[in-house]
Amino acid sequence: xxxxxxxxxxxxxxxxxxxxxxxxxxxxxxxxxxxxxxxxxxxxxxxxxxxxxxxxxxxxxxxxxxxxxxxxxxxxxxxxxxxxxxxxxxxxxxxxxxxxxxxxxxxxxxxxxxxxxxxxxxxxxxxxxxxxxxxxxxxxxxxxxxxxxxxxxxxxxxxxxxxxxxxxxxxxxxxxxxxxxxxxxxxxxxxxxxxxxxxxxxxxxxxxxxxxxxxxxxxxxxxxxxxxxxxxxxxxxxxxxxxxxxxxxxxxxxxxxxxxxxxxxxxxxxxxxxxxxxxxxxxxxxxxxxxxxxxxxxxxxxxxxxxxxxxxxxxxxxxxxxxxxxxxxxxxxxxxxxxxxxxxxxxxxxxxxxxxxxxxxxxxxxxxxxxxxxxxxxxxxxxxxxxxxxxxxxxxxxxxxxxxxxxx
Length: 408
Ligand code: PLP
What we know:
36% of the residues lie in helices and 16% in strands. By secondary structure, the protein is an alpha/beta fold. The structure holds pyridoxal-5'-phosphate (PLP).
């Protein structure tokens, strides 16, 4: 008799965005004359930069010609893209990451989800709360946790982000083997300083642990003191894997291209205590289970690193950050405290009330959709996330409606 992976039965039944969609659809059905503005899901709204589109068209034409047609490419990504990433995202910031330490993929979601496969089933986990749910759910699926008790999976050390610690989790007292960090953070928009990341690097070194650093939103950092990469911290290449995505910097959420950095200096151990290269393990995993991102998409991604591409993607992230600033200012003016929105596209509002109740109020009275913080974890309760991914006109209209509905 065929049996299921019973770890899947431990997963919480409902999915946050499905719950939101259900409530929003019910509202729209009951109020067809009231247009709803969605500032909930973190998807981009603006089209791909012209430099990417031109590269995509040119590469598509190459695929139409026998002389330039490409079949399977290297699973790890074409050299032209890996070289451009190494030069622009790392060497330019003083980080010595080699092109062959970069693995191009079709998204950070898959990479964040898949990376845990190369670690033992019994590694101990430290995962932020609130959190991008992929980190937790994939470890539940892999059987690294117990069941869900009061909204927390047993066996995980939760790294709490609260108003008390300015939404930057403290280093845990005990040792954890695998630590997930995300800065600029989804959902809070918080950023970590070099000193804060250096503490995590020291902790990982001391415990022979690995940090999984999700830097999907680095392109929104404007404060010159805030690190864009964990490799800006001395010694991080011996303890950290970094995930980056072109989704938010250049509107690739539907186009799909991202990359993961696995430095060759990273080591982990077998039960006999023998050292193993994580780069070699990930290379084995990636080449066995993945067949590369398509050539035209990698060409479009490489165009981000041309002069025009860099100017266009900067304009794109500036545009969203301008929306974020407006949101942050309006929400603060209404008397709520919030963080994010200055180096991140998300604003995390401390509502002081039940987050689903706040969501319902905003939907019913302002016809604006936000994301209830409780959906991101226990510490998200009392908060909502507002996203800056929308048109300026929609953001302005939403803020006017919120001001009327939420005046304290
Ligand atoms: N990591 C974080 C923190 C995210 O918020 C997201 C997407 O919203 C991703 C990763 C996934 O990015 P991608 O589109 O590259 O799969």
